[in-house]
User: What shape does this take?
Amino acid sequence: MNFTNGKELLDLCNKHNKRIYEVMLAKEVELSGLSEEEIRGKMRESLEIMKSAVNSGLNEEVKSLSGLIGGEGKKIKKRRDTHKPVCGLVMSKAISSAMAVLEVNAAMGRIVAAPTAGSCGIIPGTLITMQEEFGLEDEDIINALITASAIGMIITKNATVAGAEGGCQAETGSAAGMAAGAVVELMGGTPEASLSAASMCIKNILGLVCDPIAGLVEVPCQTRNAMGAANALICAEIALSGVSSIIPFDEVVDTMYKVGRSIPFELRETALGGLADTPTGRKIQKQVLGE
Amino acid sequence: MKEFSIFDVVGPNMIGPSSSHTAGACRIGKAAYKMAGEDIKKVTFLLHGSFAKTYRGHGTDKALVGGILGFDPVDERIKYSFDLAREKGIEFIFQEADLGEVHSNTVKVIVEKNDGEIIELMGSSIGGGNIVVTEINGLEIEFTGEYDTLIISHVDKPGVIAKVTAVLALYDINIAFMRVYRYSKGQNAFMIIETDNEISPEIVSYIKKTIPEVPQAYLVNIK
Assistant: This one.
């Protein structure tokens, strides 16, 4: 059971009447020689790390190495206690959790790169929020994580998930696409709808540059993780409503790669352009790196 | 096309903030630790390119020292590695350096042991926590740490490779990749053997004990 792109994945799902996670699990069993239970066990460990990162980011004192970020996710959570969230409860929880996980990452805490460290907040932010708000079991979230990995694997194979190669669209865009597809599956959507949601996510942020201040995975990465979580939920809702992406997933992935390659070097994680090259960005770089 | 595992995509599990600058750095440090063993007196890290420029902000320094202490990239003690190394009496220094035409995330680790032995290892962090070790004690070699790796220092003469692989056969170890490197003909050489099976320290000491042409053997298991 192997696939290299979205079309092949959907064909396998339809031919064997399987969900995306079932196809991906079968592929992993063949590749790794591990049993389904062992693979699920490993994913359970990853889920535990994700949960504990959300928890410590939202409830403990977290400060990044540079001091630029820390405590922002908590602030959003706090506001929820006294105000009705502008973007609704699910969205508010997802963005605060996504930001909190990125803070934990920047503070040298334990995270799961999903698919990268710079985008590590998006998948836990959305999926753990879905679990809480919809009363889902760990097993459901493990399936969703495996679904996300199938989408991420197709992107990794046919394009890139690295900001240095493809800009932020490749990092937070891929994470959002993975999360969106996983949320669709959690809510009982079809494999086609999962890939449609992933397509829409990437289409929405096509061209986004990677311009981290002082080269650190902090600003603007943190709020872009919030946006990635929101993007995932938006596109999942659209796809679950039966609206599909006009451009198929594989064409979107190819396009994302082409666009990524045409982003100038200065705007691909080098901290030479964009927000990193603003007067404030440069000042912070001097302070942090002591140059 | 390389086959990716689920856990290459959702993973690695790691200490932040950067898979290349933190997780990968830790694994390079750990590769040096695996070669040097416990008895470390002092470590000098020569940081090249992006490592030299951004190591403080990415915790590359803490991750490298964490690796020297034997920690995995997911170990939460990495954050406190400086204090833990000092407690063990390990001195460590970071220097920015130009290591030549190498990957932007490259570090040379120079380990001084209490018995005077010096081990030099150069490695690059190539993304997603993956690494390539490119040089040991001045000799250009290559391995990734994705497999259990045996590094055998040996005399360059006929039959030594057969003796080493015979021991692996005896223990039912399958060799995935193997390469041989030498300084010059008849001089000291290195075998790099990457295996599908786990290698126990017992096998390494058996090789050292029974093959006189092998003065030193190291097991680098940093999967």
Remarks:
- The beta strands of chain A are 110-112.
- Chain A has one domain: 6-289.
- Residues 36-59 of chain A form the longest helix (24 residues).
- Chain A touches chain B through 51 residues (CB under 8 Å).
